[in-house]
Amino acid sequence: MPVSSATIEAHNNSLLKEHQQRFAAAASMVNGMDTILQKLKEFQVAIPSWALGTGGTRFGRFGGGGEPRSLEEKIEDVGLLHQLNRASGTISLHIPWDIPEDAARIKALAAAYGLQFDAVNSNTFQDQPAQQQSYKFGSLQHVDKAVRQQAIAHNIEVIRHGVALGSKSLTVWLSDGSCFPGQLNFRKAFQRTLEGLREIYAALPDDWKMFIEYKAYEPNFYSMTVGDWGQSLLYANKLGPKAYSLVDLGHHLPNANIQQIVALLLAEGKLGGFHFNDSKYGDDDLTVGSIDPYQLFLIFNELVEGMDARGMNHASGLGWMIDASHNVKDPLEDLLQSVEAIQIAYTQALLVDTKALQAAQESNDVVTAQEILQNAFRTDTRPIVAESRLRNGGALRPVQLFRNAELRAALTARRGSKTAATGL
Ligand SMILES: [Mn+2]
Questions:
Q1: Which helix (H) or strand (E) holds 117?
Q2: What's the CA-to-centroid distance between 64 and ligand 1, angstroms?
Q3: Spatial CB neighbours of 344, under 8 Å, sequence gap ≥ 6
């Protein structure tokens, strides 16, 4: 393990007195603290295998040092995150960037770090070197059956890798669409895509879920064949009970009311998973909570209310994953910040006085409804999240420990200063 438990203990001891004061103050104002801490302990956010190195834009990439060079090193990095925050206990693989050559060995390595495998992700948005057919004009929507068959076979292969690792879900994000009016027959593209998804769906094991991720634009700029939650829901409903919509926070048109989308998908029993990030303009893939933490809270408020209404387990009822890119920050520090932002917003949502809010709604008391939500949002839940980490063996302040223990320097010394993760 990269960090000794003695290092974490020394870090925690140096901050303990101040933390205890802050936690006592928070505890004095919060009911049901034990329940909240238990829910926080169970709530794990998957780290995607492509987020552990520096990302780039189409203009360039400015790599950092010590980035993981292999799947094994990516697992090691997620293990480090989980050691510090005790909330990153799952990893989500992207195929073909991270093909496990020896699944049993990879599974055992992950287990040694206390990690399990979350959803596996397919890739038909770029061509691989040895590939026969090109996805330039789409994959499952393609006019050529040979291209569609290649994309279907790839997704089935991804399922096979996932089964070997103990994953239970497949996320399908298609870049299919068109860049210009007239390029595509929308109805035929939808139909071909549906037929392809049906073949993939038929290959799912009984206890698996299939997540249909939508995106409003990019890389196609005129139409996307899975462009919004309506299209995603159409596919999911037509496919069957194992198919669900997946919401990526960055995949909407500006000012979309994501919290309302979440509420309705949940009510339909068709929300399957979530990709967290934040954005100012488009699919910016910024650190969760860095731009609009109030929106994040409002989304979590709908998630908690909607899952409670359906009797769902918060931790296991949906697939939770970060999907972000780190262009200027250390990827591991960025991921620590993202996971903490998610935990903060989740805890705030747990503090909402649901009964009082419903009463305000039923009596059209708009002012009180706003007060209830903002009281929860303006509660500083950081000491509660820190207490959860402390009780579960993590660090009170993960980023501070990461820096003080010079963990990036240690990784760079072992891996080198000019490394790049696969897929970046
Ligand atoms: Mn995504």
A1: strand 116-117
A2: 23
A3: 289, 293, 381, 382, 385
Cβ proximity of 345 and 300 under 8 Å: yes
Q: What's the CA-to-centroid distance between 284 and ligand 1, angstroms?
A: 11
Instruction: Give the count of beta carbons closer than 10 Å to the beta carbon of residue 367.
Output: 8
Task: Please state whether 368 falls in left (phi above 0), alpha (psi between -120 and 50) or beta.
Answer: alpha
- For residue 96, whether the previous peptide bond is cis, meaning omega lies within 30 degrees of 0, is yes
In this structure, are residues 147 and 197 in contact, taking their beta carbons and an 8 Å threshold? Answer: no
β-sheet with 271-276: strand ranges across: 120-121, 169-173, 209-213, 243-248, 271-276, 319-322
Residue pLDDT, tens place only, 304-341 = 999 999 999 999 999 999 999 999 999 999 999 999 99
How many angstroms separate the alpha carbon of residue 127 from the centre of ligand 1?
Answer: 19
d(CA 306, CA 303): 5
Which residue, 83, 84, 85, is CA-closest to 114?
83
**pTM score, whole prediction:** 0.97
In this structure, are residues 67 and 421 in contact, taking their beta carbons and an 8 Å threshold?
A: yes
Residue 1 confidence (pLDDT): 54
Look at residue 136 and tell me whether its pLDDT is greater than 80: yes
Closest of 338, 322, 336, 423 to residue 68, by C-alpha:
423
Q: What would the two tokens of residue 188 be? A: 């035929």
Q: Give distance in angstroms: CA of 285 to centre of ligand 1.
A: 9
Distance in Å, CA 278 to ligand 1 centroid: 12
Give the three-state DSSP class for 92.
Answer: strand
CA of 238 relative to ligand 1 center, distance in Å = 22
